Amino acid sequence: MEKICVAVRLRPAVSEDSTNGTFWKVEDNRITLHKIHGTPLSTSSYAFDHIFDESSTNASVYELLTKDIILAALDGFNGTAFAYGQTSSGKTFTMNGSETDPGVIPRAVRDVFTKIETMCDREFLIRVSYMEIYNEEINDLLVVENQKLQIHESLERGVFVAGLREEIVNNAEQVLNLIKAGEVNRHFGETNMNVRSSRSHTIFRMVIESKGKDYNSSNDCSISDVVRVSVLNLVDLAGSERIAKTGADGVRLKEGKYINKSLMILGNVINKLSEGLKQRGHIPYRDSKLTRILQPALGGNAKTSIICTIAPEEVHIEETRGTLQFASRAKRITNCVQVNEILTDAALLKRQQLEIEELRMKLQGSRAEVLEQEIFKLRNDLLKYEMECGKLEMELEEERKSRDQWIREQRMKIENSSTRSSSECGTNDSQVPGFLRHGLMEEFNDINRTSQEDIFKSPKAAPSAFVTKRSKYSPLPDYGPLPIAFSNVADEDMWLKMNNGYVADLDSLQTTPNQKVQSFPTSDTTAGCASESDKYEREVHDLRQKLELANERIHELEQKHSEEVSTSKQLMDEHETPKHQETQVFHALPLKLSESVENFKDSFEEVLSVMQRSASDGKLSTTKMLSTMSEIGAQLFASLEVHFALNMGCERSSSAGNHALIDEQKIFHEKMNNIITSLELLPESSITEGQEGKHQCSCEHKGSGLGEETAYSKDLNERYERLERDVLLLRDERDSLLQKFSESSQKLAMVSCQKENALKDLNTEVQRRKNLEGDVKQFTAAFACRQKSFISFHNELNANIEKFRAQTPISLPKSFGCQDLNML
Ligand SMILES: Nc1ncnc2c1ncn2[C@@H]1O[C@H](COP(=O)(O)OP(=O)(O)OP(=O)(O)O)[C@@H](O)[C@H]1O
């Protein structure tokens, strides 16, 4: 990565009164706007790689800024140098120069050829072209007829102008003459700012090709076979202009618009490139022909330098600031520079031959490595598969055991029953009817045999569902029993043998169980292949049988799972019912309590109304009233207490609880009725007594009656307060019940959640088993696939070697393989 080199050149002032208020002052690599006789303006201070003041010469600009790029171009690096600035700021003067002070381009041309002469060890081929971009059209300055040329891009040449004349040149004079000729065709025009203003951007291009002179005939790729190609662009841009200042109209105006537009796009590209790599996004190179052609120089593979020319006049201060800001942004751009080397056909051939040789050397080792890796992979696969088989075998063993157990039980039962029937009927075995004796004994002998022998051989008869189920594994009686240990079967040797000899189509076995394994003998099939083939066929069948067993097992597990699911559901339902009842009770409890209170309230009101009546009739003495009230209160609270206790105790809606409540209600009613009756049946005497007493009292103690009433109301207040407290207590009680209810609901939810998790686990287990089954199938398929690929690889290799032997004049050793051919 390399930063673009940016310099600023201040042209000498062209008018006397240019420094009235401010002036640009150059100090080392910094340029600052100063006030006349005053301080520098810190906001207008810029630093660059180089700053050339008014007294600078083109020679110094070239030496410091461009020479390195020109020399690097001779070493194969792309290079670009361009001048940027407002109109009349000295771009053309810098690039082309004058008779006395040649500019960058003539100096570069001379330097190129001077340097070439010193590079005796290399041969150079230099082609030059000269073009302009005028009103966004590319014209060839060396051939007037070549107008409106198009830009193309190719992998080999990158971005290029199609149809542009490229002149092969041998010396500097030749090039300078071509430039001179091209200058004639260039568009210049007069504006208020510049009598000879460039109306187009010009690009002088040198394509420098070189290769080493010494030729080394050894096998190594000689440096003379490597060609360096670099492109050197020396660009004189048209200057940005303010129409008000240039006074352009008509053609000049149109030109000015094109110039400004393309410079604006150049500014955009520079802006984008000056942003960080992450932020920059799309770079609009294609928005103008200028940026498209300069694309490699801007953020691409080129060493680039920019000379920004500025005018010192105060009147141009804004344009100068603009140019300096452009230069500041350009300073942040980095290019990725590398030598451009291409190979001649001979070099390519040599390099490829070397590579082939290297590969050939490696081949022996690499082939073995590849095979080893393959074997290692297969071994791993086999290990996995063996583990799976081991698992299946264990399951199978369990099945066997359970079946044997079942058979033993059945045998015992039969034996018992036959003993019973013999003793009951007074017969012995010989007396059992032949068909029965034969049937039973035959059947269980068969079962016994089946349990002891190969489980894949079906019993002759099917005495139970269990054996019937197992009998479906029987249609392969031709094959031997399962190998004792599967790990002994498929090993590295087996793979090697198989790949040397034949291949079994396991895919077809997968779909058509009864089909025989097909083998494909090759030219070097050995006699032992047939027996090997049989062995592998058997193994494949065994594997298939194991797979089927696994399927069966999975099926059983699924059944178990579904049974468990249904059991769980049942449990859930059972759990739900009491929960529902509980919920109902909890909801009903406050209602019941309020019902009870309501009932008591009715009874109490009834008694109170009787008492009020009696009191107003004068039937009831205060003492009696008080004692009756106390009695009623005591009864009421006692009954309420009982009610609450019953409601709480019997909240699970037991009918006994309800009956007790009703009974308690009845008792209370009876008591109240008794009180009412006793009040209504008060003897007249007592009333009179009471009245007299009352009268007496009123006469004798006028004030004491008032005292009684006050005590009475006080008593009532107290009772009222007590009742209120009780109501509060009841409310608290109700709240705590509700609290308990919500806690219980939460617990219930937790239990349900646990239940669901258990169900999920069960499902996962089933899924896992299914996946396992899939894996086993996949492995079987991969097994077959690998066999095929080994055979085809072998055949292809042989064919390629034969083909190559026939085609190539180079005699190759026998070990030369197909990889060498691919490389070629
Ligand atoms: N460093 C310099 N020393 C002496 N004269 C200069 C210098 N720079 C520019 N000039 C003079 O200033 C005038 C304008 O310069 P030039 O034509 O190079 O400007 P330009 O930037 O190319 O303008 P345009 O963009 O319009 O083509 C010319 O007469 C040129 O000789």
Automatic annotation (TrEMBL):
> Where, in this chain's numbering, is ATP bound?
G85, Q86, T87, S88, S89, G90, K91, T92
Q: Name one GO cellular component term.
A: microtubule
List the GO molecular function terms: ATP binding; kinetochore binding; microtubule binding; microtubule motor activity
Alphabetized UniProt keyword annotations:
ATP-binding, Coiled coil, Microtubule, Motor protein, Nucleotide-binding
Q: Where is this region: Disordered?
A: 514-536
Output the GO biological process annotations, alphabetical, semicolon-separated.
Answer: attachment of spindle microtubules to kinetochore; membraneless organelle assembly; microtubule cytoskeleton organization; microtubule-based movement; mitotic cell cycle; positive regulation of phosphorylation; regulation of cell cycle phase transition; regulation of chromosome organization
InterPro entries in alphabetical order: Kinesin-like_fam (IPR027640), Kinesin_motor_CS (IPR019821), Kinesin_motor_dom (IPR001752), Kinesin_motor_dom_sf (IPR036961), P-loop_NTPase (IPR027417)
State the source organism's domain of life.
Eukaryota
Keyword Transferase attached: no
Give the Kinesin motor domain ranges: 3-333
| CDD domains reported in the protein's UniProt record | KISc_CENP_E (cd01374)
The record's section on Gene3D superfamilies has: Kinesin motor domain
Any coiled-coil regions, as ranges: 349-409, 713-775
Q: Does the keyword Disulfide bond apply?
A: no
**What ranges does the record list as Polar residues composition bias?**
514-528
Q: Which family does it belong to?
A: Belongs to the TRAFAC class myosin-kinesin ATPase superfamily. Kinesin family. KIN-7 subfamily.
Q: What is this protein called?
A: Kinesin-like protein
